[in-house]
What does this fold into?
Amino acid sequence: MIGSTSCIYNVFVLAVASFLIPADANGFRGNDILYGRIGTDITLMCNAANGRIVQWKVNGSLVVQTNSTKVQNGNLLLLMANLPVEGNYSCHGEAGEMLHSTQLKLGYPPSKPLVHCEAQNFYRIYCSLEKSHKELFPTSYIATYRDPESKVWNCTTSVPRNICQIDNPELFSPIPYVINITAVNPVGHRTTLLEILTPDLVQPDPPSNVKAEPVFGSPRRIKVQWNYPLSWNPHFELKFIMEYKLQQSNFLSRMETVEKEETITDAITAQLYVIRVKAKDSLDFGKWSDWSSEVFVTTWSEIIPTTIPAFTMDYMDSHSQQTVFASSPTSIILDPDVLDKDAVILISIAILVGLLAIMTVFVLWMIEHIFFPGSERNIKKHMRPTF
It folds into this structure.
């Protein structure tokens, strides 16, 4: 997908890198330090006059010439150098005077940059480096990107930990952005190219300000509310997944919604619940956010005391008055939000039967004492035995 322009793009990056790396990358001289690449031939210069006899020392000891260590025209040649030959080198004249000194450090070109890009919204892309290990040599980075119109831009960033930042990226272009991060050190360079599409990259922050509270008088209900992440523009709608469970249970329940509040209706009375929420673009672009922080809530319950508390106050006339606080029978509300459906039906039937019984007794009393006041005496008269 990079196309022919990628060749020009790579040449541009390599040209910039060439200014930072010497033509002979096997040895690079810094301030009294010579950087060399492990496994290559390293030449240490003495800058002595031609034909002058010199001696080389490493860490204060004379260098012994071998098949891999030779002195040529006053310069020290280290063949296929490896880590054991690191040290402080110096060359000396016949009288022992030091003519030149340098520190030799050996290593490798930088590791290939590991680049991670993310977008908390549709307006900005951040890219950062993931450093798996510490580089042995001083390492710098060249960061550029190519937009869908094949224009190359230097990366800028307002956050120190990020290496590249793209503001107001094109949202729905089928052509990706190409991020180019090149690591450069004294003995080499490595490049990473990363293609990204904004819609695929977007991952909102978790929903903020998640709150949960029991619904008064409703032991099976919990009201949950949350807000959009602060980093998200509400112009782009989000959808949410709310997850809840009993604290002591591994069974999870989920509810998907585009609203910023929902009511749980299948909770258990007087139990502690754990609730969390995550978000995603409502058109299903990108990834789900991480979960919000968990919130804890206990469902509502009506506690009826097993004993009736009594409070007595003595008066000056030695009389006592007792006040009894008790739950009124009317405290049971026949509301489907309060009780289970079956319980409501049973209580309704019981009340109806009770009312019918009371009405029946009342009607019989009316018939006996008002409409037929003498009926009781007549019944008793006829029931007397005849002798």
